[in-house]
Amino acid sequence: MAGSALDRVETDKPYEALAVTGKAEASAGSPIIELAQLTKTFDSSGQKVVAIEGVDLAVRPGEFVTLVGPSGCGKSTLFNIVSGLLDADTGGKIHFKGEERQGKELLGTVSFMPQRDLLLPWRRVIDNAVIALEVEGMRRKEAREKAQVMFQEFGLAGFERHYPHQLSGGMRQRVALMRTFLFERDLMLLDEPFGALDALTRVMMQRWLLGIWQRHRRSILFITHDVDEAIFLGDRVVVMTARPGRIKLSREIDLPRPRDPHVTTTPEFLAIKADLMEAIEEESMKSFMSQDERG
Amino acid sequence: MARAGYLALGIFIIGCLWEAAIAIFALPPFILPPLASIGGAIWSEFPFLMRGLRATLTVAGAGYAVGAVAAILLALSMVLVPTIERVVKPVIVAINSVPVVAYAPLCLVWFGMGPASKIAMVILAAGFTVFVNALQGLQSVDAAGVNLLRSFGAGPFRIAWMLRLPAALPAIITGLRVAVVRSMIIAIVAEMLGAYEGLGRIIYESTQQIEFLTLWAAIIVASTASMIAYGILVVIDRRLVWWK
Known about the structure:
The structure holds two protein chains of two kinds.
Chain A: H1 2-12, H2 23-26, E1 33-44, E2 47-59, E3 64-68, H3 75-82, E4 93-96, E5 99-101, E6 111-113, H4 125-129, H5 131-135, H6 140-148, H7 169-182, E7 187-191, H8 199-216, E8 219-224, H9 227-233, E9 236-240, E10 247-252, H10 267-294
Parallel strand pairs in A: 3-8, 3-9, 6-7, 7-8
Antiparallel strand pairs in A: 1-2, 1-4, 4-5, 9-10
Helix pairs in contact in A: 1-8, 9-10
Chain B: H1 2-25, H2 35-44, H3 46-80, H4 82-96, H5 104-111, H6 115-139, H7 143-151, H8 156-193, H9 199-208, H10 212-240
Helix pairs in contact in B: 2-10, 3-4, 3-6, 3-8, 3-9, 5-6, 6-8, 7-8, 8-9, 8-10, 9-10
Transmembrane segments (chain B): 7-25, 31-50, 62-84, 90-112, 119-139, 159-178, 185-204, 216-236
InterPro entries (chain B): MetI-like, MetI-like_sf
Subcellular location (chain B): Cell membrane
């Protein structure tokens, strides 16, 4: 089922359609969000755990930033802070479109997509997609009309009135992405959206996401474990250190867009990958060793 | 449909064992009357039994409805305002750590011999059953789902309406189903302890007057009514919680 839906997307939207490059606009304008010296300490039964420490990060309008790091490096903590679900320690600053915001003030300002699809089993696909619009107070009929036009683009045409359990994993993930897109905010946070998918579906979804992004021009901050994915998607790859999570390295990816999947086998791509792998492996080793010490 | 078949088979087997026991052990009618004579008693006293059933169902139904609504509202308020849970929940648990029947004498003193005292006891019993299930269901909602709605800017009321209530529906309906039977039991027991009418009253009086056929007839009517009510809730469950 997933396969056929994806085929449809690709025949509808040929690759030439993606010819707009993200670069020109990405570098223009002041950052949409700017994090300065963000630190978060958790207090678990008297023991202080520093999840992230002194994180500085800025995302420019229209930019696609991918975030990689060893597991447990506080990537999800960072996302929870940026989306307003969690308060950072005092001292750090978040500027959203130039205005300083903190904690709960950020709720509802960025569109956030967690790792799991979190579709509500009792709502039809279309009603899951419009849930953020409903929260904003839009009438359901109007919200559905707004969502309806996106089904073709998201490869879900014909599945509007299905229930989530009738969909494959890839399709569910696309419904979740559509829900995120329909919550129209200039910054999207995607937390390993393709982590649970098989390798083939994941590659299809990556290409498809790039297409959607280039047409909708939103800024994206994207968490992943997968270095190939990070390079293939990103204008910039940011590597985080092992706990406590810090920004170790930020590297512009100057591979031309639109990116063909074959780009992953070019020498330029492999050179970038070698650089990043070195940094990441160093960090993975650290977190591995520190687990060893603890054990 | 298959379920109805098994139910009929079960009733048939019990009926056979019943008649066999009477035949083998030569049981006198006041120990175990033949099924035919119980059927005869139901037939001849049908209007009388139905008046009793109506009184019992009124008490059980009113108490059940009020108790269930109050329980769901209370559980919801506890989810929205955690302080309410900390203050009120221990009180509710304390009240219900004693069998509801223990409150029967007090209820009779407070609310009299009429239906009000029985309704109060059913409210307590049915309400507690629904409350425990509803609270558990409302609280065991996936935190990630709550966070997702919060990130869209939803407040606690909207989260309760869009996520918590539907997610808790299976647990709430389980509570409602169990509470149906409890309501009937409590209504009948309460009537036995002091009432002007109802199946419980008929059971109590016919025992006093050694009218064993009427006693059995009342028991069978009560049991049948309970099972029908339970069956209705099972159907509602399947209609409302189709996604499980």
